[in-house]
Specification:
The complex is a heterodimer. By secondary structure, chain A is mainly alpha-helical. Chain A contains two helices and no strands. Helix content of chain B is 50%, strand content 19%. Classes of the chains: A mainly alpha, B alpha+beta.
Chain lengths: 61, 346
Amino acid sequence: MNTAMMSTLILNVLQGFFFGSGKAHVVTGVALIILAGIAWSLWRMDRRLTTLERDVNDSPS
Amino acid sequence: MSNWNALWKFGGILLLAYVIVRGFGTPLQPGLVEASPNRLAPGHAVLELTAVGQPFAQEGATPEGFTLVLRSGQDLIATQLTAVGPHGVSAAALIPDQVPSPALDAFLFTPESGTLFLGNAFFIEGAGIGPVPESFATTAPEDTAPQLGFSFPYQPNIIESIRNLLWHVPMWFAMFFVMGIGFVASLGQLRTGDARWDHRAEAAVRTGLVFGLLGLATGSLWARWTWGAWWVSDPQLNGALVTVLLYTGYLILRAAMGDDERVGRLAAVYNVFAFVMLVILLMVLPRYTESLHPGKDGNPGFNSYDLDNSLRAVFYPAVIGWGALCYWMYTLRLRMNRLEHRLLTK
């Protein structure tokens, strides 16, 4: 581990680095929002593809 | 979307949500990270040890029940704890003028968090080499089982970044999984010449590449934290990069050939070659050469020493969740390929 990272770790150590500073909640929230965005866009794409597949199947060749 | 279809897709997303909440919300077990002063001379010394992770003592706790022992070679040296805080201890010690080894390991025995260890915590300068005199020696107290709640194991150097295990490793697993689908599809294409196999192979490689790039990014981040550099010339890392470049070559080959009828067959041959190279570069070669990467060259993988039950409870859902997300993306790309093919051949 390099000196800068060790200093960060030591500086925050009394607060518990990850938890006491509240960073864990922010990171969790951001990650959940990104996951929800990915899920929503995949779901929307899934629905659109289903509609397109239905249209192509129904259209006369 | 049928019920089963919706179930596995949203099941995967829910598992990933669980992994995020558990992965970032679970505290780390306490571990010693720093000793001060690093260098000691024979005689009286005041020692300080700093820890990270969950507090191992209450604010204002008394040293009663805590023991700090220094180890030189196989001999143990007693210390007298003077103060104990949630993330550190102070102690007074009498350093002998003769030790088996100038490097001292520190063992902090705690009533609730088990034994905390820091290797090569102190270095004695100016001491002779020999057994520790009896008046300095001590015996270690009995180990107590840690009474911690749901928490991730402390590992030196890795520390809080152990959470990356839930991202980096499952992403590579997902890549292997979907590239395996692509390999089987390419074999099917070569055997039958059916374009449907080719659609599967292309979809698999495109999806696998996304996860390969994510695996590289998360691995590079981890390397920066634990090894101090974004990239090191390591057979595992270089192999991973070459693999991703090989699969990028697959897409370039397809794009270069355009609508040529032979594209499916040629791409299938290339994909079979790329998958064989993936296995050789990521699973075979790193085991025969020196590597920093866990699990290679006798370097222990996570499963053998620190993938404890609390980490497993999040790691396995992560593998399933990332796998489900990857497979969902693969099926979407496959359906796009099929639709495109149908519209072009109508």
